[in-house]
Design goal:
8-stranded parallel β-barrel; binds zinc ion; 8 strands; binds 1,3-dihydroxyacetonephosphate; 13 helices; binds glyceraldehyde-3-phosphate; alpha/beta; TIM Barrel
């Protein structure tokens, strides 16, 4: 199957109330682990690369590895730029065959975000590529926001409507309390589902995206720590909340941290148990297997996208 945009998969996700996993990639083992899982679950999947991941892997290699996955499996796969920082990066990805790009203008004020997003939308649409934009700010606990300025960071549903109408973006990433990385919450995990619901009421036909949505799977953190890692107190979004998001109007759920933990935990285990190991296949095979298992669990048990290819 050729590369697809996210248009059809998002339409189905909104109609049938499930979410599609968008998994960050920067090497062959991640790509293989993810598509092996998606194919086994007969699920659509989004492979996404950030600009720093593209710098690391090199765009030509990423493209060819994704092409290999498309040759191997008959499931819908979209290739997406994650957190495009500027127009030029989005254009480079569009010109190199990505089917979807994100322009992340959330660091700018409302009007500047609109202006930049519109420019990307215009170019992307002229090439048949779809655009994800972002409104609202994802705080990390290290940002130490107090309650009153927390409200200012969440997406304003009224603004979301104006933003989508004025930019023509195809999907919208919103801020409802998630954040990137392994340290998302100091105390209890809490997401503002009330804001999600209001956004959905204002823009019912726009697919919604959740960034910073790793569970920070406790078993994976323990595995890293048991075999010499030092990742104390890490905490993410519990599966139950992600499942609720999936059936409440979120179409795309972004996962990077959990795959980093899976690869690292598996590799650490091999090195700890067999210090004489030095064949990369010896540690990258279990790493790829654990990525597959992690993705499969999310697709099947949390996001609900199995058998929707
Ligand atoms: O949201 C950001 C992703 O986790 C990508 O991170 O820029 O380190 O590749 P990165
Ligand atoms: P996590 O750090 O929670 O995996 O979020 C990834 C992400 O949002 C990529 O854009
Ligand atoms: Zn993100």
């Amino acid at each position: 199957m050729p590369l697809v945009t996210t248009k059809d998969m998002f339409e189905r996700s909104m109609k049938e109330h499930f979410a599609i996993g968008a998994f960050n990639v920067n090497n062959m083992e991640l790509i293989q682990g993810i598509v092996d899982a998606a194919a086994e679950e007969n699920s659509p999947v989004i492979l996404q690369a950030s600009s720093s991941a593209i710098k690391y892997a090199r765009i030509g290699y990423l493209k060819k590895m994704v092409e290999a996955a498309l040759d191997e499996y008959d499931i819908p796969i979209a290739l997406h730029l994650d957190h495009g920082p500027d127009f030029e990066t989005c254009k480079m990805c569009i010109d190199n065959g990505f089917s979807s790009v994100m322009i992340d203008g959330s660091k700018y004020d409302f009007e500047e975000n609109i202006e930049l997003t519109k420019k990307v939308v215009e170019y992307a649409h002229s090439k048949g590529v779809v655009v994800e934009a972002e409104l609202g700010k994802l705080a990390g606990i290290e940002d130490d926001v107090n309650v009153s300025n927390q409200d200012a960071m969440y997406t304003d549903p009224e603004q979301a409507k104006e933003f989508v109408e004025r930019t023509g973006c195809d999907s919208l990433a919103i801020a409802i309390g998630t954040s990137h990385g392994a340290y998302k919450f100091k105390g209890e995990a809490k997401l503002r589902f009330d804001i999600l619901q209001k956004v959905k009421e204002k823009i019912p036909n726009t697919p919604i995206v959740l960034h910073g949505a790793s569970t920070v799977i406790p078993e994976l953190v323990e595995m890293c720590n048991e075999y010499g890692g030092n990742i104390p107190g890490a905490k993410g979004v519990p599966d139950e909340m992600l499942h609720e998001a999936s059936i409440s109007g979120v179409s795309k759920i972004n996962v990077d941290t959990d795959l980093r933990l899976a690869m690292t935990g598996a590799i650490r285990k091999v090195f700890a148990e067999d210090p004489s190991a030095f064949d990369p296949r010896k540690y990258l095979t279990p790493a790829r297997d654990l990525v597959k298992k992690t993705v499969q669990h999310k697709i099947r048990d949390v996001f609900g996208s199995s058998n929707r290819a």
